[in-house]
TrEMBL record:
The keyword Zinc-finger applies. Residues 45-54 have a biased composition (Basic and acidic residues). Keywords: Metal-binding, Zinc, Zinc-finger. GO terms for molecular function: zinc ion binding. This is FLYWCH-type domain-containing protein. Residues 38-57, 62-82 are annotated as: Disordered.
Length: 82
C-alpha cells in the first residue's frame, strides 16, 4: 500500500518502470483517483496523482503507517513479531 497526502492507495498495475496505484476507497466512494510512481527498483518517486472524490481518512492512513513501522522494526530484529 501507498500513503500519500492522507490517502491510501493499493497497487493497481505494474509496468517496466512505473507503478499505478488506485485509491483504496475506489469501491466505497466510486473514487477514480490514481497515483503514478517510479518502480521500486528506481526511487519510488511520485510522478503524478489525480484528485479524490472524498475527504482523506487521516486516522486510517496514520494507523497503516504505524503498523508498517512496527513490521519494519520486527524485521530488523529490534522487537519480536508478537
Amino acid at each position: 500500500m501507498l500513503v500519500y497526502n492522507g490517502f491510501l492507495y493499493s497497487k493497481h498495475e505494474v509496468y517496466e518502470n512505473k507503478i499505478v496505484w488506485r485509491c483504496s476507497d475506489y469501491k466505497k466512494f466510486a473514487c477514480k483517483s490514481r497515483c503514478h510512481t517510479t518502480s521500486e527498483d528506481e526511487s519510488g518517486e511520485i510522478l503524478k496523482h489525480t484528485d479524490h472524490s472524498h475527504a482523506p481518512n487521516v486516522a486510517k492512513s496514520e494507523a497503516k503507517g504505524l503498523v508498517n513501522e512496527i513490521k519494519k522494526s520486527a524485521e530488523n530484529g529490534q522487537f519480536s513479531t508478537r
